[in-house]
């Protein structure tokens, strides 16, 4: 990774000598900026908290870390559960931003264009009840309709882009993708199986995953864009976030990251750089890399988006111990 950064910087300086007008002549900013975004809320009970407890804990972690405001991409079907709407209102009242993550959380590639757009509209209407709204829509599963790589997929992807533009909704792209949901699912299963959970190790794997992923996409951005866009971190409104956001923010800052307002992030020019490729599942920088022919595994793979690699890290860190004695007796 270090080699790739050095190479990119060297190339930038070389280009700069020959073409003073080009963007490449500008030195790459030394400031690394990132914004935090949380999808899928309001979610139900998790391995540690009820939904209500999670909201209170996450609000308090974000305040303690002085990391806000952050953006919540709300799945509005969750508003139907007890306290769901109150919890989103509480995030907004705490100063966080509220954006659209659909009503039913379906995959665009498995839905008709018409149904998909109706679902976006339904969510948008339901979100009108909240303050601190932003006109941003994030595709569930980062599926923009093009998963099958054929002409029909391109047509659907473009129709969805047109629909967003028509509604003046910005695509709430991500640039740093992680499988925090997988760690959360492993945690939930361990609790169901009565296993002991080493919270310190769990925090370490979660935090390392995000910090490593941020470094990966930072290096990739320098390779692909020859600059540092404001990074958009995809996380979920889960018990990991409610438990370890303070740890995460401390670790990001220790690596030189500045946590910025989501408005700053989505004002970055990358917001308007719509990739040609149908490959959207790893976020915008990966897609722009693919557009430039950078599709090798080394460029696009990262342990933060690999379930076996995450499983191995969890194993090595000894996150889950054997069932407690009481469970064994039971
Ligand atoms: Zn989602």
Describe this structure in words.
With 330 residues, the chain is an alpha/beta fold. The protein has one domain: Glycoside hydrolase/deacetylase (TIM Barrel). It contains 13 helices and 9 strands. Strands 1, 2, 3, 4, 5, 7 and 8 form a 7-stranded parallel β-sheet that branches. A two-stranded antiparallel ribbon has the order 6-9. Strand 1 (32-39), helix 2 (51-64) and strand 2 form a beta-alpha-beta unit. Helix 7 (199-225) runs parallel beside helix 10 and helix 7 (199-225) packs across helix 12 (307-317). The chain starts with a helix and ends with a helix. Bound molecules: zinc ion. The site of zinc ion has 5 residues, from loops.
Short overview:
The protein is built from 13 helices and 9 strands.
Q: Supply the CATH architecture.
A: Alpha-Beta Barrel
The distinct ligands, each listed once, are:
zinc ion
| Relative strand content | 5-15%
Are there runs of 5+ residues with pLDDT below 50, and where? 1-22
Cα shape: globular
The percent range for helix content is 40-55%
Count of discrete alpha- or pi-helical segments spanning 4 or more residues? 13
- The CATH C-level name is Alpha Beta
| β-strand number | 9
Distance between the termini: 50 Å
- Major sheet size, sense and barrel closure: 7 strands, parallel
The CATH homologous superfamily name equals: Glycoside hydrolase/deacetylase
Domain module tally: 1
**Rg on CA atoms, Å:** 20 Å
What is the string of helix and strand elements? Answer: HEHEHEHEHEHEHEHEHHHHEH
């Amino acid at each position: 990774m270090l080699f790739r950064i050095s190479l990119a910087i060297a190339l930038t300086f070389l280009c700069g000598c020959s073409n003073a007008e080009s963007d490449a002549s500008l030195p790459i900013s030394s400031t690394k900026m990132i914004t935090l975004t949380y999808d899928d809320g309001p979610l139900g009970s998790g391995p540690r908290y009820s939904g209500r407890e999670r909201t209170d804990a996450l609000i308090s972690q974000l305040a303690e870390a002085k990391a806000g405001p952050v953006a919540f991409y709300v799945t509005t079907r969750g508003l139907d559960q007890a306290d769901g709407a109150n919890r989103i209102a509480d995030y907004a009242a705490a100063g966080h931003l509220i954006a659209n993550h659909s009503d039913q959380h379906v995959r665009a590639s498995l839905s008709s264009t018409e149904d998909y757009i109706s679902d976006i509209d339904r969510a948008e209407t339901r979100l009108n009840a909240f303050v601190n709204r932003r006109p941003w829509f994030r595709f569930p599963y980062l599926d923009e309709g093009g998963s099958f790589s054929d002409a029909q997929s391109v047509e659907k992807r473009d129709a969805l882009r047109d629909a967003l533009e028509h509604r003046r909704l910005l695509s709430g792209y991500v640039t740093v993708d992680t499988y925090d949901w997988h760690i959360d699912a492993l945690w939930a299963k361990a609790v169901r199986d009565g296993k002991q959970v080493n919270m310190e190790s769990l925090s370490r794997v979660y935090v390392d995953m995000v910090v490593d992923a941020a470094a990966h996409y930072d290096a990739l951005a320098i390779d692909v864009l020859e600059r540092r866009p404001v990074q958009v971190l995809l996380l979920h409104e889960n018990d990991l976030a409610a438990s370890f956001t303070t740890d995460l923010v401390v670790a990001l800052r220790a690596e030189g990251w500045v946590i910025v307002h989501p408005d700053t992030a989505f004002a970055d020019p990358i917001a308007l750089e719509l990739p040609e490729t149908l490959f959207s599942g790893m976020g915008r920088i990966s897609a722009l890399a693919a557009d430039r022919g950078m599709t090798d595994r080394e460029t696009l793979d990262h342990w933060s988006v690999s379930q076996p690699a995450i499983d191995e890290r969890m194993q090595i860190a000894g996150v889950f111990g054997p069932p407690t004695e009481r469970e064994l007796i039971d």
